[in-house]
Design goal:
Blueprint (H helix, E strand, L loop, with lengths): L9 H10 L4 H7 L16 H10 L4 H4 L10
Length: 74
């Protein structure tokens, strides 16, 4: 979706999921989590949650939340 060094805005993540016909609650339930659990990715780093959302969006977590990943790793 975005190709800059800024994290996606929360609303952009939610909107991208909606465009695919899903949402955070549905993804959480599909991954055996409580419906509100995935919202935690918007306030703290949580690799498991980031991966679930990124996979649904066919993206890498580091492209959605670049500030959370070390840019020196290549």
């Amino acid at each position: 979706m975005q190709t800059n060094d800024h994290d996606w805005h929360d609303a952009d993540v939610k909107c991208a999921l909606e465009k695919l016909g899903t949402n955070l609650s549905a993804l959480a339930r599909a991954n055996d989590l409580a419906p509100a659990t995935l919202r935690n990715v918007f306030r703290m780093r949580w690799p498991k949650g980031e991966r679930i959302i990124a996979d649904a969006l066919n993206e890498k977590p580091e492209s959605i939340w670049p500030s959370r990943y070390d840019k020196k790793i290549a």
